[in-house]
Amino acid sequence: MTGLNLSEWALKHRSLVVYVMMVAVFTGCLAYFRLGRNEDPSFIIKTMVVQTAWPGATAEETMKQVTERLERQLQETPHLDFLRSFTQAGLVTIFVNLKGSANARQVSDTWYEVRKSVGDMRHTLPAGVIGPGFDDDFGDTFGIVYGFTSDGFTQRELRDYVEDIRSQLLQVPDVAKIELLGAQDEVIFVEFSKQELATLGIDRSALLAALQAQNIVRPAGTIQTGQETISIRVSGSFQSEQDIASVNFVAGGRTIRLSDIAQVRRGYADPPQPMFRVNGQPAIGLAIAMRDGGDILALGRNIKNAMARITADLPIGIEPVLVADQAVVVDSAIREFMTSLLQAIAIIMVVSFISLGIRPGLIIALAIPLTLAIVFPIMEIARIDMQRISLGALIIALALLVDDAMTTTDATLNRLAQGASKVEAATFAYRSHAFAMLAGTLVTIAGFIPVGFAASSAGEYTFSLFAVVAIALLVSWFVAVIFTPLLGVVILVPPKQENSSKPGRIFRFYRNLLTLAMRARWLTIAISLALFVASILAFPLIPQQFFPASDRPELLVDLSLPQNASIFASEAAAKRLDAALAADPDVGHWSTNVGRGAIRFYLPLNAELPNSFFTQAVVVAKDVAARERLQAKLERLLAEEFPSAVSSVAPLGLGPPVGWPLQYRVSGPDVERVRETALKVGQIIASDPRTKGVNFDWMEPQRQLNIRVDQDEARRLGLSSQAISSVLNTVISGATVTQVRDDIYLVDVVARAVDEQRISLTNLRTLQVPLPGGRTVPLGQLATFGYQQEYPLIWRRDRVPTLTVRADISGGVLPDTVVDALSPAIDRLRATLPASDGVAVGGTVEESQKSRASVLAVVPMMLFVMFTILMVQLQSFSRLFMVVSVAPLGMIGVVAALLLSGRPMGFVTILGVLALLGMISKNAVILISQIDAERAQGKSPWEAAVDASSSRFRPIMLTAVSTVLGMIPIAPTVFWGPMAVAIMGGLLVATLLTLVFLPTLYVTWFGEKGRAGASAASPS
């Protein structure tokens, strides 16, 4: 090779290179401690929530007049994947989901466009619509959650303390935001007896107007004197419920005190807002989110120290309970991964020392920390934290990065054995292998391109795998050509001739096997191809998976009552669940969210929006084994004790959130036909014994009381439907009259009827409706009453009513397996549906297919980059074909390893298999380059193939063995295990085929027949 020899340059500038090595180690140590720590890599939840209210409208009116108009506008959103909405009577919630290919800047710009476009069409919505409101922080993660319980304190007193604690914690470094959970807003109720008001002839609306007028805030002017400015304030604003009760007003010529005709009391929102319970006790929670790029371990320490100071000042009776602590989880995960990393380093060092000897092994051992020391600062610059993906990538990269150092060291040793000086031997490695190693390194990195550029949430989640491996491999090449030669000159000594001339038994066996394979070359090629075809045919036998469940001890317990259930019913169910959890020895602690899902305390959590019928408990078992036992017990308990509820018990998942594992979406314009089809789909799913808990995201209608007003009679009496609705709303639900400004709170003053009149449906007939002249008339005189049914909510997807049939699956069975089994029956059902209706697979299977498609879409780019690098290095179509023919043979080992171990082919495993193509190609490139180098010395193709293969046998096998053994520490893990097993099996088999099949193919291609003399020993 001509041009600059980096190894020679390094040896001529030894002091500078040593200085750079020292700086690299120092900055690497510094960067290691400064790198952010997190549980999962950050990825954008590409969902915005748009909510709009239209009080008083029916579900159908809301859907046609509000949902439809908003969705038509939102369908013009750039990068839109799909819209998903649910419509309730008077309330619309729309999820705007962007495509996985949208990057962070596009997502931010798109949310601005959504706000702007909806704002522009706001005037087209019906009168009385409130909103729309927007939530684009749907993906915020609140990794630390405290619950505060109280004994002997009111809810208001507890909230005062929690608000003060919140203010203090907001000052802690790295805290981005803090949300309150379960806090109930105070309300002052003014409760009238409708009969008493009618008897006294009091106009309720005039009374409420008087309350509003007294409490209003208006400027009374200022007086400017020559010396000062004096503000004028008019008294009358309410400071407490006593001020309201003491209000006097004139009615019928008399002065009446409000407390004489109404009960004025302070209470809490009715019905309650979503509630939060800790270990079975009512509580208020504080959920703490970390700023982007923060260190969760540092945040955890700072919060812990702050809470220690705060707790010391809390009165006895108020107890903080740490409900979720991501810092502890991350600390444990990082310690486990660092242990795995150290184990991998130790394994590779042992392999190096045993196979190469003490001195060469020491060079490999020094190359590892040198490489990592340079990788850490680059990770810091690239803002790649220490998290699940990057730490796993370091272990995978570690097994690969020793390859170049081993190649350089082995070439130097061989040159020394031939009598060359240390300097000449060290620079020879660069001349003979540097560019082949660089091409191989780039090819290996190219194998990870689908990881880095897959346009999906799963691809974004695993991006740091590509980034870290690419950084580590490039750095390892520079270390191998700059630092390793310098270390070799200092550490290596020429090997003793008597040892170098005695090939070992393994080496002799390989030479004999290679010679035999080359002589029976057609049989060798046929066997290799047969094994490859067999692996392809056996591939469908491997179970398919998206992402596995987490190894955290938490369980998510979902409890959905019928969708017309009140929050009081959900609270009663939550208390029953709490009682069961309190008696279970496998439970460490738990928190219960009534009327909403758990806040996103874990990034891949499938967050649920507030709904009065929904309860979610986060149960932390004492360990993973206890979690498994607890899951089985809870599933039995919920089936037996909560038969009318849709329940689910599941561990936390990894990867992008998907919800129920088995989902089918039934869609069509006719709601009734959609229901009928969904019931048929449910029957098909339930027919498979591996499914359980079949349910629907909406299905059953609810009762509705319909008051039909005689409009002619109403007009004769001077009434309107609006006036009647206003009276009913005030009496039954209550109308907010004004607000009391109490410290930092705004307390609504709500006027309504007393309980016995408000909650009795029979009393509605005798409800006294005020007439314009001051008289009243019973409601039954001008209206009739009847019941009808309507759906409590309707889900839509892309403006089409969509009913999702959901189910859980038995343990050990993967969703893909069940979907494949159900496909024939589902296809037969599809064939009977009108063209406007459809049944689509959703959930885990759909997300898996989309993510795999995003990876496969990048494979052509990966192959183009690989072929280009190979062509630049080999500059021969025949040699390119040989490399390409060897690379897929790794599937033989992949399929065998996964089938024997029972591991599934998941998303991460697919990435590993694609990366394996690059690893195999690297060895093939270096081997073919070595064969060509041998031929350049005048050897025949047969002799060149045997000698080159013999020369490369040790470094290739050492690298393969180091890679395989280096992945042992992560092979048992849930997340990385299948990928590690696939790479271990694939690389081991592919390495053997590279050393046997590739030389055979080379000799076959160039037509050289076997010669007995070709088995002479070559330098070892």
From TrEMBL:
Gene Ontology CC entries for this record: plasma membrane
Protein's organism: Bradyrhizobium guangzhouense
Keywords: Membrane, Transmembrane, Transmembrane helix
InterPro entries for this protein: AcrB_DN_DC_subdom, Acrflvin-R
Gene3D superfamilies linked to this entry: Multidrug efflux transporter AcrB pore domain, Multidrug efflux transporter AcrB pore domain like, Multidrug efflux transporter AcrB TolC docking domain, DN and DC subdomains, Multidrug efflux transporter AcrB transmembrane domain
Chain segments annotated as transmembrane: 16-35, 337-356, 362-382, 434-455, 461-493, 520-542, 853-873, 880-900, 906-929, 956-976, 982-1005
PANTHER family per record: ACRB_ACRD_ACRF FAMILY PROTEIN (PTHR32063:SF64), PTHR32063
GO MF terms, alphabetically ordered: xenobiotic transmembrane transporter activity
Annotated protein name in UniProt: AcrB/AcrD/AcrF family protein
